[in-house]
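User: I'm new to structure prediction. If I give you an amino acid sequence, what do you actually give back? Let's try with this one:
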Amino acid sequence: MISSPPKLREGLEVIRGMDDIPLIFDPVSGHYHRITRSAEALLGYLDGTRTRDDLVAYFSENARVDQARADAFSRQLDTFLAGLERSGLLEGSEQTEQGTGASPSAGGKRFRTSMLMPRVVLTRSLPTVLEPVARVLRALPARLIVVLATLGAVTGYAFGFHTLFTGTPGLRDLAGPAFLIATGVMLLIVLAHESAHALVAQYLKVPIRGLGVALLFYFMPVAYVDRTDAYRLRGRGGRVLLAMAGVLSDGWFCGVVGLVALNSSGLVQHTAAFLLGMQMFLLIVNLNPLMPSDGYTAVEAAAGLTNMRGRAFTLLRHTIRRQPLPEHLARFGTGARRWHVTYALASVAYGCFLAYAMFHTIPLSVDLALSVVGR
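Assistant: Good question. You get back a string of structure tokens that encode the predicted 3D arrangement of the chain. For your 375 residues, that looks like this:
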């Protein structure tokens, strides 16, 4: 129980995010903390002038409730204050890594680990670079931009993958040097993919915090942009577009690579064929809702959910260890718990499958590398 008069830390920002959800933003940790609307109304009274008992007496008297309801409010208040203290949001409380976001603030460390993904921030300068482009795009109708981007991406994917299966040599006929060249070009496409996320964020006036590299499940290298501040977007449409920006960008590149493959031969065609195969794999990964992917983020945004994956893994971990559930998970019904545990188990199984598949592609990668040096 909080004994001293509770007071919110200085510098915290209370905002309304997606679906008008109240959020507390901690600029020190860079995290967002979701609260209820009734809790939002209570925040104004946490100014350090009232004790916990004063708050119970004040609200019970003004609401003219009986003793049973006053006791219920007292328990709810204790839970709420304890949550604020655990999250480091009260004066004198220890700051933690909890919150809806799991990313470093603008001035945070360049390396951190979260959600089974060690991350290294490479640059935080993209907002400055992309703002001139975003300013030009804001002058155009948003619906027109979305329609053109989507049509171009769908057309590019269809044409590129059709070319891969009908207009390029088989895998065994491709030359090793083409694989190395394609890998280098693919890194540039991935950079463009992440920059597309950053550009949409900048367009929506929610700048990204950094561009970096992560190891998904500690073994799969992926590029990423820190889009934590997307919690500030109040509309679902903007968050879905932000999540899918990279996939739409890839579709345009897929169409371009398909054109190159269809109108070339030799090393250039082989390189384009490898690129198309890599892009098809990237699309499958990016749309997979069982991973912390663009597809997962889009589904989460469209459904109005926050941190669904984090809740699923927390529930699974506490279930396996037979530990008491955190209060926000203890309120889940039986059906919701089963669904989240099933999702977490499926995600773990898929991660194991990816590790197995990558392990078994090592011989092929070695053969391709040896073919480069003529062995």
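You can read the tokens as a compact description of the fold. Here is one thing that stands out. The radius of gyration is 25 Å.
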